[in-house]
Amino acid sequence: MPTYDRTSINAWEDQEFTDAVEATGRRKLVMTALWTEACLTFPTLDALREGYEVYPVVDAVGGTSVAAHEAALRRVEQAGAQPITWVQLLCELQRDWARKDTAEDFMTLFIETGGTAGLQFAYDRG
């Protein structure tokens, strides 16, 4: 995956970034960032204005405070973003345990990072 060196807080204002997004041909974006109230909010609002569906991963970003994080999430949700957690995202991508080609990696990821669910999966695996 390429990286893009930029100076702007808002990635959406960087032409290389938006060109890369447009080149995917996709209209649904999963977004994370360093700071919720700036690095996530600004490009999310711009992408929404341009007709993208945006799914901010709320537990893969943090604010400068809890209040800042929550206020920024409310702002992007009111603008049309659809907040999601990393667990919801993984489950939506997996969808069905019959998808054997991804089920094992899904389980491994959960066991390594999934807290209580990871412990249960590890126990079930035997």
Could you please describe the fold and organization of this structure?
The protein is mainly alpha-helical and 126 residues long. 56% of the residues lie in helices and 6% in strands. It has a two-stranded parallel sheet. β1, α2 and β2 (53-56) form a beta-alpha-beta unit. The chain is globular. It starts with 14 loop residues before the first helix and ends with a helix. 17% of the residues are buried. The mean pLDDT is 89.
By DSSP, the count of extended strands is: 2
Radius of gyration: 17 Å
Secondary-structure-derived class: mainly alpha
- Cα distance spanning the termini: 35 Å
Judging from the principal axes of the Cα atoms, what is the shape?
globular
The H/E string reads HEHEHHHH
In DSSP terms (H or I, runs of 4 or more residues), the helix count works out at: 6
Average pLDDT over all residues: 89
User: What share of residues are in beta strands?
Assistant: 5-15%
Helicity range: 55-70%
Q: Largest sheet at a glance?
A: 2 strands, parallel
Sheet with most strands: strand arrangement = 1-2
- Counting copies of identical and different chains, the oligomeric state is single chain
Unreliable stretches covering 5 or more consecutive residues: none
